[in-house]
């Protein structure tokens, strides 16, 4: 393309966080979209292994030794041998926005065959309001060619700030192990051209492989839990973060959008390995969801940090009865907030907004 490319949106206000155990050749495909942004690479597994990053990218890379050095004893809250370690990148970032992507995710094409700039769509989602209090049947009213439909209350048309943009995937769907085993050859070919706000009071399964969020609004809630090495559970890191984040967004009067953009998810993980990781989570979840549906955060919780500490107390009191893992997780939630506040001393989270009464 002739001439210099236009300055990308939020170039100096957004970090791209990538957890990995391998060379990042996948970045070549993303070069037109990512090269002008700063990358934070969180290397999981063996810290003595060298991860190769293609030339021309502006990045910082942290391995387990770096995490231990920076956080000291508090490093215990960061998972090892699990992509949950990505949340360390959220903590050390100094930017307002985060986009996180897995290293097996490639550029997807829209139905016309054009490459999808996933990051640009996430930014559009984050920079326009959400509508969690009243559903708009034309989906996102702030998109070109859409608006609020007849009957939508004018008092709610201003919307609320968007904290999270949850993107989707073509090709390999994000299924759990039992579904993978039953449908090993299923591929997602459905491109749905829609973005919608998840209504207040509704939980959702948040996938961390194509996710954008406003770190200043919701960052401290984006803790991906204790997973992987030494833990009885895996593959619930993003789910845990999603349930906690949605609960806190509802309390704080913030919005979460889901839908566009799509990425191309290139490889299916092993369903037998996944089943081993998910086994406990699959049945614990039947008690976790009612727990999250019943949590009420007191009005004194006016920052994300206060909400998260309160939630950790309720996790300890109520979920600790299910398994001692949740007592460990509740402790780690507190450690995470302490570490966040140490690394982000002026980052007192935005105060609660006054949304419609609960």
TrEMBL record:
Similarity comment: family membership: Belongs to the RGP family.
Keywords associated with the record: Cell wall biogenesis/degradation, Glycoprotein, Golgi apparatus, Isomerase
Localization per Swiss-Prot or TrEMBL: Golgi apparatus
Species assigned in the record: Vitis rotundifolia
GO CC terms of this entry: cytosol; Golgi apparatus
Chief localisation class: Golgi
KW Acetylation (keyword) present: no
Function in brief: Probable UDP-L-arabinose mutase involved in the biosynthesis of cell wall non-cellulosic polysaccharides.
Pfam families in alphabetical order: RGP
One Gene Ontology term from the biological process aspect of the record: plant-type cell wall organization or biogenesis
Reactions accelerated catalytically: UDP-beta-L-arabinofuranose = UDP-beta-L-arabinopyranose
Residue positions the entry lists as glycosylated: 150
Protein name listed in UniProt: UDP-arabinopyranose mutase
């Amino acid at each position: 393309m002739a001439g210099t490319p236009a300055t990308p949106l939020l170039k100096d206000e957004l970090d791209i966080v990538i957890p990995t155990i391998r060379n990042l050749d996948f970045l070549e495909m993303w070069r037109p979209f990512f090269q002008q942004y700063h990358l934070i690479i969180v290397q999981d597994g063996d810290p003595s292994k060298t991860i190769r990053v293609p030339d021309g990218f502006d990045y910082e890379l942290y391995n387990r030794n770096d995490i231990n050095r920076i956080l000291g004893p508090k490093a215990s809250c960061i998972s090892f041998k699990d992509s949950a370690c990505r949340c360390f990148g959220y903590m050390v970032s100094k930017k307002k926005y985060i986009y996180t992507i897995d290293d097996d995710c490639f550029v997807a094409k829209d139905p016309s065959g054009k490459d999808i700039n996933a990051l640009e769509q996430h930014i559009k989602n984050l920079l326009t309001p959400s509508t969690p209090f009243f559903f708009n049947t034309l989906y996102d009213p702030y998109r070109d060619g859409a608006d609020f439909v007849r009957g939508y209350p004018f008092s709610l048309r201003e919307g609320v700030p968007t904290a999270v943009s949850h993107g989707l995937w073509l090709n390999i769907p994000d299924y759990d192990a039992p579904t993978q085993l039953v449908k090993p050859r299923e591929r997602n070919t459905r491109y749905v051209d829609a973005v919608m706000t998840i209504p207040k009071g509704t939980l959702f399964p948040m996938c961390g492989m194509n996710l954008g969020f406003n770190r200043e609004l919701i960052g401290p809630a984006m803790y991906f839990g204790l997973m992987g090495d030494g833990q009885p559970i895996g593959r619930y890191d993003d789910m845990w973060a999603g349930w906690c984040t949605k609960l806190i967004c509802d309390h704080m009067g913030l919005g979460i959008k889901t839908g566009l953009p799509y990425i191309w998810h290139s490889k299916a993980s092993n369903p037998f390995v996944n089943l081993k990781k998910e086994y406990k989570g699959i049945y614990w979840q039947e008690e976790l969801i009612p727990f999250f549906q019943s949590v009420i955060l007191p009005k004194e919780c006016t920052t994300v940090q206060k909400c998260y500490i309160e939630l950790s107390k309720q996790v300890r009191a109520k979920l600790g009865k299910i398994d001692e893992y949740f007592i460990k997780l509740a402790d780690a939630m507190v450690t995470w907030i302490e570490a966040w506040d140490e690394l982000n001393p002026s980052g007192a989270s935005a105060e609660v907004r006054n949304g419609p009464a609960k």
